[in-house]
Amino acid sequence: MKRTRRSKKGGRLFIIALLLTFAVGMGGSYFLLKGKFTFDSSFLKDAASGRSKPAYNEQKEAPRRLYEGSDPAQIEASAEVKKAASLAAAEEAIRKYMKSYGVRLLDLYMDKDGIIYIDLGDELKKNFKGDASEELRLIAGLYKSLEPAVPGLTALKILLEGHEAESIGGHIDISKPIGKEIAENI
Description:
Blueprint: H1 2-33, H2 42-49, E1 64-68, H3 84-98, E2 105-110, E3 115-120, H4 123-127, H5 132-146, E4 155-160, E5 163-164, H6 180-183
Parallel strand pairs: 3-4
Antiparallel strand pairs: 1-2, 2-3, 4-5
Helix pairs in contact: 3-5
């Protein structure tokens, strides 16, 4: 009987020592390594500051507004804004291409680097039931339809309800601007 009590006591001491060693190791690791594994994230900065604007609005130069709402008369008159005919053509190309998907065009921007931001309604993501090839055709077709309408186009960024999205159907990453290479894949 003495032997079992001694082994139980020794087992408890071993577990306590093991837990104490684990806790000291975790605490030490945290304080030694906390500065080495930090990363810069605009999402975390936005969340900490309480802002709800998407990261694409944070540029040195404000994006040129090409289109807002459904009234083409709201296009800003500026020397930097594309001609109204090419803007109308870009809007028409998007509306025509997205008509079969039943998606609203909410807004359209172009930044100084020639990246066009297309803000579409979230019904695109909700109603999309295609596979990876259908998603690729949708994105590449959208790029190809804009390419002739907007001569300075370098890339396309798709937003859903004003927010960045990872993908439309879960297959293709749209969190970054999409360039000409996607249009060449189909």
